[in-house]
Amino acid sequence: MQQQSRKQQVYKSIKLNIMNKIYQKWKVFHQYRLATQFEISRISIRQVLTKLIRGEYVNAYVKSAMFVLYNGLICSNMRKEREWI
């Protein structure tokens, strides 16, 4: 139960940082760095980033990178790329 609530805290923290433009658009997320920063496993970070992808705050390219997409408006051309995830 503690792990689930910790993931929720990390999700909310990253989402707020994106919405408040602390994480600027196109900022690349590194799973290892985020896991170290938030002191949770990389698997948990992947799950958080997947949830952010579903909310269209983050975009990902397969086996490449995850980056901030949100800037107040969702870029329609990015939705096509997202479908490949």
TrEMBL record:
Q: Which Gene3D superfamilies match?
A: Winged helix-like DNA-binding domain superfamily/Winged helix DNA-binding domain (1.10.10.10)
Check the record and name the InterPro entries matching this protein.
WH-like_DNA-bd_sf (IPR036388), WH_DNA-bd_sf (IPR036390)
Tell me the protein's name: Uncharacterized protein
Source organism per entry reads: Bacillus cereus
Top-level division of the source organism's lineage: Bacteria
